[in-house]
Design goal:
This protein is mainly β. It has one helix and twelve strands, in the order αββββββββββββ. It is 11% helix and 43% strand. The structure holds 2-acetamido-2-deoxy-beta-D-glucopyranose (3 copies). It comes from Podospora australis.
Length: 176
């Protein structure tokens, strides 16, 4: 055979292999867009409310849902690892769509962990198509995506820093 013919055969062979073997790249999932994230703890003075709070709102751009989450806890019963269900709009009443969040300690030792300003936020979306998760660290000192203060009275209030809003959090689909 002529070299040209061989080359053509080779090219068409590689082309067909490529179309068979190469999986179609999936477009990346659209992120979560965190609008607000606030934490609060009371002064602990006699007569003051015992409740500490975590509140957040985000949009799930992949599914076009807006999600509102909130949890309260006390120092005796902290929120670490508890799964808290969120509310979402538009409200779908199917048995799948559910958003929840967890506050996780940022390191294995838990040293320096704080439900106010040093934690991992873990978001989970149970959907008909599967389970989607996202995790992001929020931290006052190093990541500096959280700002705020504790006042002299002992009341602490922190939140997503204005400069980083809205905050993009990459989500992934869990493989089953
Ligand atoms: C979600 O919120 C964004 C901005 O707050 C708004 O533009 C959008 O219309 C809302 N989407 C739904 C589905 O409610
Ligand atoms: C924050 O979360 C708490 C506890 O779920 C809830 O009672 C409160 O209404 C929330 N606040 C806001 C501003 O969403
Ligand atoms: C966390 O979950 C445990 C076990 O279900 C429960 O006893 C505790 O009251 C929960 N704490 C909060 C702050 O939700």
């Amino acid at each position: 055979m002529f070299p040209q013919t061989l080359l053509l055969l080779f090219l068409s062979a590689t082309a067909s292999i490529a179309t068979v073997v190469k999986p179609k790249p999936k477009p990346p999932l659209k992120p979560y867009l965190l609008h607000t994230l606030t934490t609060f703890s009371p002064s602990g003075r006699p007569g003051s409310s015992p409740w500490s709070l975590v509140n957040l709102t985000f949009s799930d751009l992949e599914f076009n849902n807006n999600v509102t989450c909130g949890a309260k806890y006390t120092w005796e019963d902290p929120l670490w690892n508890n799964v808290t269900e969120c509310a979402h709009t538009p409200t779908t009443k199917d048995k799948y769509t559910k958003y929840s969040f967890q506050m996780l300690k940022p390191t294995a030792s838990g040293e320096g962990a704080s439900l106010l300003n040093n934690f991992m936020l873990h978001l989970r979306h149970d959907a008909e198509k599967g389970v989607y998760v996202a995790t992001q660290r929020f931290n006052f000192d190093s990541d500096r995506n959280i700002g705020g203060l504790c006042s002299a009275s002992g009341v602490c209030s922190f939140g997503l820093r204005e400069e980083v809003r809205p905050y993009y959090i990459h989500q992934t689909k869990l493989e089953r």
